[in-house]
C-alpha cells in the first residue's frame, strides 16, 4: 500500500515512491542548536518520524538526512554571551536535542551532518554559482544569490513577485543590517563577510574571511548525501519562504538536477489557542512538561494526534487525554496477551484486524483518523472471547500500528482511571481542536455525538471539562 502524501509544490496528493525503486531518500531541516527545542519544533520532527516509520513499515528502505545548524546569527550571538566557543556551545545543545529525541522515541537519522563541518562544501557550491552567473560578491566580502537569474523562483511558495521582494526585504531587515549592498532586495546571502560581532567565528574563502549564509547549508549537505535529485524534502511551514524557496534556487542553479521531487511541510503548533511565546509562559520544552508530571510518550501522542496539515492546539487537557488513551491501549494489550499466552515483545509484522487504521494512515498520514480506527477496533473486540490465534493476530496488528506511530505503551495497571472513557476524552479533544480552528460546524457535530453518548462539555477560556449528562 503506497503512502499518499500532500505535495506543497504541486498542491496535490501524490504517491510516495523512490526514484531508484529501492530506497526512499529524504532530507529534513534540523534544529538550530542554540537552546532547547520546544514542543513546536518537535511537532515537525515527530511528524517526520511518523512519515519515515510508515514508509519503513510499508516495506521500503529509507535514507534519512537531517542537518544540524551549528553556525548562524543565533548560535554565534549566544555562544559569545555564554563565554563559550561555538563548538562547545553547540555541542551542549546538540546533546540535549538528541536526549529529547530519544525520549520522544524518534528514530535517529541515518546521516546528521553539521553546517560547520561542511563549510568547504558550501564554498564549492558558492563558487559554482558565481562561475555560472547566479551569484556575485560585494565589497564587504559577502556573496549574494541573484534571484533574477532563476526564472522559477517563487514556484514553491506561490507568491507574486512583489510579495517575494517585500518578504525578502522584511527578512533581511530583521537579520542582516549589512545587506544594503545587494543588487536587489530579493537577493539573499550565500556568504557573509566577517563582522566584528562575529568574534572568532569566521573561515577563509575566495571572497575573504566570513561564514556561510543560513540557506546554503541544506543545499550543500543534501547534494553531498542525497545527490542532485532526491525523493522528499521536509520541514515546518515557516520554512517554505524564504528558506526552501532559496534552497530550490541555489540547488537547481548549481547542479543539473531538479532537487527535491516532493515537498512535505508540517503546520505550526498553537498553545492554549494562541501563539507560543516566552512572554506568555507557554513555550514548553519537554523538560517543562516532564516537571508537570507528564511523560514523553504522552507528549508524543498529543503531537501526532492532529493532522500534520492542520494547526494543532496544545493544551494540558490534551496531555491528560493522551494519558487515558495510552492506558486504554495498554489495558487492551494486557488482556489480549493473557489470551494469547504471550509476554515477549511483539514484532508486529502485519496490521491484521487493525488494517482499517493502516489504510487511513497511508492516506496523507491521517494519524487522528488512524487513532480513531484503532480505538474502534478495540471497542468492538472482546479479548475474553478471542481464540488464541485471533489474540495473536490482534497483538500483531496492534503493535504493527504502534510501531508505525512510534507509540510506547505505559506499564499496564489495574488503577486505570475509567471515570471518563478514553474514546470520549479523544472525541472531546477533537471537538476542542475544531473550536480552536473555528470549524463551528464540525464542533457542533462532535458535541452532539458526545451528548448522544451521555456526556456534556463545559467550556472555559483555559479549556474544557467533561461531565456526565
Short structural description:
By secondary structure, the chain is an alpha/beta fold.
Furnish the topology, listing elements before pairings.
Elements: E1 4-7, E2 12-15, E3 23-28, H1 39-57, E4 61-66, H2 73-81, H3 86-103, H4 119-131, E5 135-137, E6 143-145, H5 161-175, E7 188-193, E8 210-212, H6 214-226, E9 229-236, H7 240-254, E10 259-266, E11 269-271, H8 286-291, H9 296-304, E12 312-314, H10 316-340, H11 355-361, H12 367-379, H13 388-405, H14 422-436, H15 440-452, E13 455-459, E14 464-468
Parallel strand pairs: 3-4, 3-9, 9-10, 11-12
Antiparallel strand pairs: 1-2, 5-6, 6-7, 7-8, 13-14
Helix pairs in contact: 1-9, 1-13, 2-3, 4-6, 6-7, 9-10, 10-13, 10-14, 11-12, 14-15
What would you say this structure looks like, in words?
Helix 2 packs across helix 3. The chain is built from 15 helices and 14 strands. The protein is α/β, with parallel strands linked by helices. The protein is elongated and about 75 Å long. The protein folds into two domains: 263 residues, HUPs (Rossmann fold); 199 residues, no CATH class. Helices cover 44% and strands 14% of the residues.
Amino acid at each position: 500500500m503506497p503512502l499518499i502524501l500532500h505535495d506543497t509544490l504541486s498542491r496535490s496528493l501524490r504517491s510516495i515512491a523512490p526514484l531508484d525503486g529501492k530506497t526512499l531518500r529524504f532530507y529534513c531541516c534540523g534544529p538550530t542548536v542554540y537552546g532547547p527545542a520546544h514542543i513546536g519544533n518537535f511537532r515537525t520532527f515527530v511528524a517526520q518520524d511518523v512519515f519515515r516509520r510508515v514508509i519503513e513499515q510499508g516495506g521500503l528502505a529509507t535514507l534519512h538526512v537531517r542537518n544540524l545548524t551549528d553556525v548562524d546569527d543565533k548560535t554565534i550571538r549566544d555562544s559569545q554571551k555564554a563565554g563559550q566557543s561555538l563548538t562547545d556551545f553547540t555541542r551542549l545543545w546538540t546533546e540535549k536535542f538528541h536526549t529529547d529525541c530519544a525520549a520522544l522515541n524518534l528514530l535517529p537519522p541515518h546521516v546528521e551532518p553539521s553546517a560547520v563541518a561542511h563549510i568547504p562544501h558550501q564554498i564549492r557550491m558558492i563558487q559554482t554559482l558565481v562561475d555560472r552567473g547566479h551569484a556575485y560578491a560585494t565589497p564587504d566580502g559577502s556573496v549574494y544569490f541573484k534571484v533574477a537569474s532563476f526564472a522559477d523562483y517563487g514556484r514553491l511558495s506561490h507568491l507574486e513577485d512583489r510579495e517575494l521582494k517585500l518578504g525578502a526585504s522584511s527578512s533581511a531587515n530583521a537579520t542582516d543590517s549589512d545587506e544594503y549592498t545587494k543588487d536587489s532586495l530579493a537577493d539573499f546571502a550565500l556568504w557573509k563577510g566577517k563582522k566584528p560581532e562575529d568574534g572568532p567565528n569566521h573561515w577563509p574563502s575566495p571572497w575573504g574571511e566570513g561564514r556561510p549564509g543560513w540557506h546554503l547549508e541544506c543545499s550543500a549537505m543534501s547534494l553531498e548525501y542525497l545527490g542532485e535529485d532526491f525523493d522528499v524534502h521536509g520541514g515546518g511551514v515557516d520554512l517554505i519562504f524564504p528558506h526552501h524557496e532559496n534552497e530550490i534556487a541555489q540547488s537547481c542553479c548549481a547542479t543539473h538536477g531538479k532537487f527535491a521531487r516532493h515537498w512535505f511541510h508540517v503546520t505550526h503548533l498553537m498553545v492554549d489557542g494562541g501563539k507560543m511565546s516566552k512572554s506568555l509562559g507557554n513555550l514548553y520544552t519537554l523538560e517543562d512538561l516532564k516537571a508537570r508530571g507528564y511523560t514523553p510518550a504522552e507528549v508524543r501522542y498529543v503531537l501526532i494526534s492532529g493532522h500534520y496539515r492542520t494547526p494543532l492546539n496544545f493544551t494540558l487537557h490534551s496531555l491528560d487525554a493522551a494519558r487515558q488513551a495510552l492506558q486504554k491501549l495498554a489495558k487492551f494489550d494486557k488482556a489480549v496477551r493473557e489470551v494469547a499466552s504471550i509476554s515477549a515483545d511483539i514484532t508486529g509484522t502485519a496490521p491484521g484486524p487493525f488494517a482499517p487504521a493502516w489504510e487511513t494512515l497511508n492516506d496523507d498520514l491521517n494519524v487522528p483518523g488512524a487513532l480513531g480506527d484503532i480505538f474502534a477496533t478495540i471497542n468492538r473486540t472482546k479479548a475474553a472471547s478471542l481464540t488464541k490465534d485471533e489474540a495473536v493476530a490482534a497483538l500483531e496488528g496492534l503493535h504493527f500500528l504502534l510501531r508505525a506511530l512510534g507509540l510506547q505503551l505505559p506499564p499496564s495497571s489495574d488503577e486505570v482511571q475509567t471515570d471518563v472513557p478514553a474514546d470520549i476524552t479523544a472525541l472531546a479533544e477533537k471537538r476542542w481542536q475544531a473550536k480552536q480552528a473555528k470549524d463551528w460546524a464540525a464542533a457542533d457535530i462532535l458535541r452532539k455525538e458526545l451528548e448522544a453518548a451521555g456526556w456534556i462539555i463545559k467550556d472555559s477560556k483555559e479549556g474544557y471539562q467533561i461531565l456526565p449528562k
